Amino acid sequence: MKKIADFILKIGEMDRRWIFIIIALVVLLPLFFPIGLPIRPTDSTQTAYDAMDDLEHGSNVLVSFEYGPSTKPEIHPMTYAVLRHLFKNKHKVYITCLWPDGQFMAEEAIEEIAEQEFNLTYGKDYVLLGFRPGNEAVVKGIVSNIRKLYSTDARGTLTDKIPMMEGINKLADFDFIFTASAGYPGTVEWVQYGADPTGVPMSTGVTSIQVNEVMPYVQSGQVKGILAGMPGAAEYEKLVGIPGIGTSGMDAQSVAHVVIVLFIIFGNVAFFIERQRQKKY
Amino acid sequence: MTFGTILGAWVAVFLTLAIFSYLYKDNPFYKIAEHVFVGISAGYWASMFFWTQIQPNLFGRLWPASEYNADSFWYKIYNGLHVLTSAVFPEGGIDKGHDMHLIYLIPFALGIMMLLSVSSKLSWFARWGIAYTVGMAAGLRAYGFLNSNVIGQIKGSAMQFVGGDLPFFALIGNSIFNNIVILVGTIAGLAYFYFSKEHKGAFGKLTKLGIYFLMISFGASFGFAVMGRISLLIGRFVDLIDYSKAQYNHATIWILIAMIVLLGYNAFKDRGKNTPVSEDAA
Question: For residue A122, what are the β-bridge partners?
């Protein structure tokens, strides 16, 4: 028993760089050799899907991009899956960005999904209104008068000349809001200044680290479901029926989690052994 | 594939591996990537802010093309600015669909005051801009928080405990048992932050229960944080695998080899010197 305890303590002192290498390997290997672990949609993802699926065809949906390259692996698969779902149901999509780099993400997503996959027409089926600085003040601006804030779209076209902007003057003219958010400003600001004051239903996709912050709004019904990090994206991809980056990353995600849990258990065992020995001597 | 795309892939691979190299130890590759990131971010943000807000929504409202009159004093100033830079102030006024609103001179002045903070003598002007921003943000947020976080959350925690068609117990979703747990957790959690009464006796037990609920919440946050970091790692690895293909001239493989050789040579040169792993490398 003492030998095992000594061994655990000795391993506990190993260079942390070994842990980095182990984590890198357990993430890399499933990417090369997929296991195909099953993906089951959680209640929160199903609620978000149902909320968007229940919209009448041709509804006006505002999709807001609040993320950049640093959180792309988590959020981008969600926006792809959500855009596929919205375009499949013939909704009109209006894209805004509260983050400057969100505009790049939006351009990439619409090029791939709207133009290449669905062959849709810009200005008729979807429009990229683009980024405006001002954080929550931008949301307030959209609530009161979107045309005052967005006199032109991201491509410099006057919004008055964009066909699908007809009848769109304020947030209340939209049927649904979906925010893809990685922090501030993001989902919380859309709830506080957009959805709650106007009553327009909204759903969201957020980074894993934000889930605990946003979950109270989901439980109270202020937000219709939530896509939580990469697993949320994978679940939404399953519901839409088109597997993407989210699905392919889930094997690596699951294996890495098992290894991290083992590390935590191991670290705690080493801690208790050490504490017991200190008490003894 | 264009030369630009391939070059972009090589740059992306270099920057990714340079940042990862910090896990080995602080080194010049990491420093390069760090400085490039900070510099490009600052430049990109400044450019985006200027071209999406200041030029179209501020200057566009001060000198709109729709009210252009070359003989007026106001537009003579504009024409002077046009001589300086025609990209920002194009000929014949700025056509961004706005009418003239001279009230926007106030935020323009406040913005200039903020910039004066760089001068030691005139930095006090910046207080006006900061005061306006803080006041505006406080007013705006007070409403948002009261409406969504106080009233909305109180409404959300008003739950059903008896009657109706709720099951007594469900592992996931609504049930009487889960509603009781939320009620007890909310009260116990709030009680923990009540410091006007000493945490002793029955109240002490309630606050201790509150700590357990808080710990569970922190544990969940930690779990989600780990999940997020692993997702980001997966994203970078997916890109690195893509860029290791022949169409990108095996960018990942060449840069990885070059970096290992250079870091190895550096380590060989510095052998004997005590260079511990940075404490932040985690």
Answer: A126
Coil, strand, or helix at residue B140?
A: helix
Please, which residues 126-155 of chain A have a Cβ atom closer than 8 Å to chain B? 130-134, 136-137, 140, 149, 151-152
Structure tokens at B46: 């400044």
ipTM comes to 0.87
Q: How far from chain centre, in Å, is Cα B161?
A: 40
3-state secondary structure of B207: helix
CB contact under 8 A, A222 and B156: yes
CA distance A186 to chain B (A): 13
Confidence band for B274, pLDDT divided at 50, 70 and 90: low
CB–CB contact A31 B172 (8 Å): no
Domains in chain A, ordered, with CATH? Answer: 2-33+266-280 (no CATH), 43-243 (3.40.50.10160)
Chain A residues inside the 8 Å CB shell of B226? 257, 260
pLDDT of residue B282 exceeding 50: no
A residues 2..31 contacting B (CB < 8 A)? 15-17, 20, 23-24, 27-28, 31
Lowest mean pLDDT among A58-67, B199-208, B237-246, B269-278: B269-278
The better pLDDT of the pair B276, A117 is held by A117
The number of CA neighbours under 13 Å toward the Cβ of B31 is 4
B25: closest CA of chain A, how far (Å): 9
Report the percent of chain A where pLDDT is more than 90.
74
* pLDDT tens string B16-49: 999 999 999 899 999 999 999 999 999 988 998 8
Task: Give tens-digit pLDDT for A121-174.
Answer: 999 999 999 998 888 889 999 999 999 889 889 998 999 999 999 999 999 999
Element (H, E) at B126: helix B126-144
Amino acid type, A105: M
With 0-12 CB in 10 A as exposed, 13-18 as middle and 19+ as buried, what is A252?
buried
Amino acid type, B150: V
Give per-residue burial for B37-48: e unless 16+ CB within 10 Å, then b.
Answer: eeeeeeeeeeeb
Torsion angle defined by CA atoms of residues A115, A116, A119 and A123, in that order, rounded to the nearest 10 degrees: 0
